[in-house]
Structures are given as C-alpha cells and as structure tokens.
Amino acid sequence: MVMPEALAHIMRTASGYTHAIPLLTACQTGIFAALGRERRSAGALARELGMDERALETVLLALVADGFLTGDEAGFALAPGYGEFLLPDGKRTRASILSHHAHLVPRWARLPEVLRSGEPVVATQDRTPDELRAFICGMANLSRESSLEAAEKLNVGQYRRMLDLGGGPGTAAIVFARANPQLNAVVFDLPDPIEIAREEIAAAGLEDRIDTMAGDFMRDDIGADYDLVYIANIIHMLGPEETEALLRKARAALVPGGTVAIKDFYLDDSRAAPNFAAFFSINMLVNTPRGKSYTRTEVEQLLTRLGFQDLALLSVAEESAILTARKGS
Ligand SMILES: C[S@@+](CC[C@H](N)C(=O)[O-])C[C@H]1O[C@@H](n2cnc3c(N)ncnc32)[C@H](O)[C@@H]1O
Q1: Mutate to test the pocket of ligand 1, among 189, 246, 287 (most ligand atoms within 8 A of CB)
Q2: Is the beta carbon of 233 within 6 A of some atom in ligand 1?
Q3: 246-261: buried (b, 16+ CB within 10 Å) or exposed (e) per residue?
C-alpha cells in the first residue's frame, strides 16, 4: 500500500534526528577530519580515535547510506564534493557550525521543559569554552560568504568608519575592510569572543584598520562617529525592548546621514514563513530569555519610530536579509 503523503511527511520529519545526530557526531568527534586525511578501515579509525570498532562501523555505514562517506573493502573515505564543507580546514568549511549544532541537540531535547517554564535551558554565560569556540567560529563559517555578498549589496566602498556590533569573530569587518581599503572598523563583542576576533583580525593582517572593543552592548559605551553600524544576527537574541534599546544606541553612535544595516532571518507577516526563520525562533526560545525571529514589518516599524529614514531590504545568502536605514542629516 502506498503511504499517504501526510504520513510520509510525519515519519520523514520525526526521524530527522536519526540522520542529523550521526552527521553532527562525526564532525564533532573528528571522524570526518581523520577520513579527510586518508581512507581508513573501521578498525584502524577506531584505534586512532579511541572508539569501539563495532559502534564506529555502524555509524560509518549509516553515513555511507546517507551519501556523506563512501565505503568499500579498502575502507571509508569522504564522499566526493563533501570535504570542502566537512573538513575543519576546508575552503568553505561548516565544521564549527556543525559542532555548534551538536551542542544544541541536548538543549532542543528539553523543549517540553521550555514549553512549561518559558525559560531557556542554559544561560549564555554557562557555555563551556568548547561550546563558545564552536559557536563563535561557527558564526565565521556562516558569515564568510554572506559578508562578501553583503559588502557588495551595501556598497561598502562608500563608508569610512564602521561598527560591527556583536561582531563575534569579526568576519564582516574583515570582509568589508578587504573590500574597501579606506575603511576602518571596530568589532564590539563580549570579552571571550573578542579574543577570537583578535586572532582572526591578526590572521587577516588587518590590525592597523580593525580595532576591537570588549563589553556588553546593552550596558557599555559602543563608540561614536560611525557612518555604518552593522548588526548581523543579533536582534534575534534579544526581546523587543532590548532590540529597541540597542537600535536607539546604534542610532546615537552614527554620524548624521549614517547607515544602520540589520542582517537577520526575517519572518513574513504570517510569522510562519520562511520555514527556516520559523524554526530558528525555537532555537532562540531554547537558548535565550526573550529572543525570537522578528518579522520584517516589526523591524521596519521600529526603525521608523526611532527616526530612521530611507528603509531598504537587501537579500543575502543563508536565509538572511539586510534591512538598511539612514539617520537623517
Ligand atoms: C549570532 S552571533 C553573531 C556574530 C556576527 N555578528 C555574525 O553575524 O557572524 C551573536 C554575537 O553577539 C554577541 N553578544 C551577545 N550578547 C552580547 C552583549 N550583551 N554584548 C556584546 N556582544 C554580545 C555574541 O557573543 C556573539 O558573538
């Protein structure tokens, strides 16, 4: 008997974790990194990684079944085309963001608890150093390509002094500074992520044009006289009142005529689409006290209320869009 589409949909979605968890685990435990170096048998890999051979082979065979690995008598290897994304040093690596997802799985599993309490399961400050590094470096994985696109769409050549507010590893500041040799930037973030930003800025050789400021953007001074304040993937962590306070602060930090650019996963007015933004809102429910995916309309209305002008929307990769607005002169 043919399975009704509704039932197929339910069963496909319900078993999604059985595919996600082996993929995330293989990334997090170094299985992909080891297989990227050379083809191995399950036994050789188990000895190298200190794993149980029977358990490892079971997982490797499932990863072959899903197309991430190939496997034959000579052993297991990464499937063609996957190395650049799955290896930590791959050109378009997503290794850190996959490790970050691995850390999120046990939190999402506590959704029943969150539904009762309305509270996040872990306070941000309780992240372990490994979790923090995977999160911040995961942001670099995601933002590298979208920042290239943002630099072009924002026409960053017109700016001279930007603030990358909650800039994490400073990816946007680095990409924008490379695109515009006249640009000076400040990356503002909490003290631990700022350490990672400093490493990235030094690796890019841009210490002369990119400064860092460590602090809490809700409480501390964020500097002034910027002609661009870039706020990427930040407001979804904040409740409406905090978002308003932060945008007010961003406005005060801009020169007259300066631009605020807010990159996020905006919902449409139905608040149930796009699909990614609707589900991302659950991530914020589980991980932050008041965060959520905002509708584009909510943010446009807020910007207008705060006195911003000339609102525009630019779409960029990885499910995002950038809302821009100008502080009147
Ligand atoms: C989702 S990440 C976005 C990073 C970067 N803007 C990007 O798009 O790649 C959010 C960033 O906000 C920072 N952050 C969160 N709360 C903050 C606060 N109160 N003050 C300063 N930075 C904060 C986090 O440390 C993290 O780097």
Answers
A1: 189
A2: yes
A3: bbebbbebbeeebbbb
Residue nearest to ligand 1 atom 14, measured at CA: 166
Query: What 3-state DSSP class applies to 315?
Result: strand
Tokens of 77: 């290897």
Report the nearest-CA residue for atom 4 of ligand 1: 168
Which residue's CA lies nearest to atom 3 of ligand 1? 233
Total-model pTM: 0.94
> Model confidence over 18-46: pLDDT tens digits?
999 999 999 999 999 999 989 999 999 99
CATH superfamily of 143-327: Vaccinia Virus protein VP39 (3.40.50.150)
CATH 1.10.10.10 domain extents, the chain: 5-94
Residue 201 φ then ψ, to 5°: -65, -40
Ligand 1: atom nearest CA of 231 is 6
For residue 166, the SS3 value is: coil
- Say yes or no: CB of residue 235 within 6 Å of ligand 1: no
Parallel, antiparallel or unpaired: strands 254-264 and 320-327: antiparallel
Closest to 223 (Cα-Cα) out of 195, 192, 254: 254
CB of 232 sitting under 6 A from ligand 1? yes
The response to whether residue 238 sits with its C-beta less than 6 Å from ligand 1 reads: no
The DSSP bridge pattern shows strands 75-78 and 69-72 to be: antiparallel
Model pLDDT, residue 223 = 98
